[in-house]
Amino acid sequence: YVNNDACYPSLIVTGQIMDTILSGNYDTDRLAVLMSQTGGGCRATNYVAFIRRALKKAGLEHIPVISINLSKIESNPGFHINLEMAVRLTYAAAFGDIFMRCLYRMRPYELNKGDSERVHEKWKKICRKFVTKKFPGLPEFNRLCREMIRDFDSIRIDESLKKPRVGIVGEILVKYSPTANNDLVNLIEAEGAEAVVPDILDFMQYCFYNQIYKAENLGTQKSTARICSMGIRVIDHARKAAFKELKRSRHFYPPVPIREIAKYASPIVSIGNQTGEGWFLTGEMVELIHSGVKNIVCTQPFGCLPNHVVGKGVIKELRRKYPGSNIVAIDYDPGASEVNQLNRIKLMLSTAFKKLA
Questions:
Q1: Where are the domains of the chain?
Q2: Where do runs of H (alpha helix) occur along the chain?
Q3: 165-199+255-356 has which CATH code?
Q4: What's the rounded mean pLDDT across residues 225-253?
Q5: Could you count the other beta carbons within 10 Å of the beta carbon of residue 54?
Q6: Which of 29, 35, 53, 320 has a CA-to-CA distance to 239 between 20 and 30 Å?
Q7: Structure pTM?
Q8: In the prediction, which pLDDT does 32 show?
Q9: How many CA atoms lie within 13 A of 255 on its CB side?
Q10: Contact predicate 88/140, CB 8 Å
């Protein structure tokens, strides 16, 4: 459905959506597709067009494809994100971030194999029930966040075991999707290291922060900037209980505020770099280095121009500013050699183990 020259995330997303639609598990006359869209020069802006083209080729063009974006790329009559939906989305993303932060921290060190996954599965059921209930309130959400973090924090681990910590950054889909990155987290753990993956809510705040920068420096609407500033405060407020509990915990670290990440990135790249992951990718790498994670895998779709500037393009400067940083850029593509990817990651890990010794 999509030409092989297209952006790798576009291929993955379109393929997954078509695989699901054609599975026979859904009534295609009562189906709609929701897809986020960044806007700007990133090829990911074409996701929605690719999906519509694929549906047309499959004879399913009656299925509506709804774009979710902050750039007013297109309107969607009959659909809008109301306050209730936005709250549920924030709750779900916050739960997912806590899972990543806690599960990846504890699993490589657990004394009884499977303890971390058991806690993960237990809380997945609780979180799903909460997010889908009729009135998911903030006090209960805060309580669940605190209890979840405490539950993970109480898992018995080998405190004497030292492993290299490896950060995963890059293009948003390749960074988070095991399908797209060939199960990178499990690969890192299988090689005897600990994976560290930054929060997805930070990316949402990055999108909001960009609008504030544009209003202050490029003359865009101040009203949009005010709404986005409020969006950052809402996310910070939603994460407040988890932030405090992570800070109090024995094994975890709280997230870094988005304005702090912008300060980390600004000496290296302009905050005006907003195509794709933009300055945020550079800021995430500096954030990881500041938190003691000097080994980093920068995942990028092959031929992704924005990532080659703010990802691969800043590695030399990061090494100069932060001696000892061990960063490798890995290209992902349908035609990319998995053996070559594995060898490059193993080479980075061998350097990490030498520095740990």
A1: 8-68, 83-153, 165-199+255-356
A2: 8-21, 47-57, 83-106, 115-132, 138-153, 172-176, 184-190, 200-217, 222-238, 240-248, 258-265, 278-290, 305-310, 315-321, 338-356
A3: 3.40.50.11900
A4: 94
A5: 19
A6: 35
A7: 0.91
A8: 93
A9: 29
A10: no
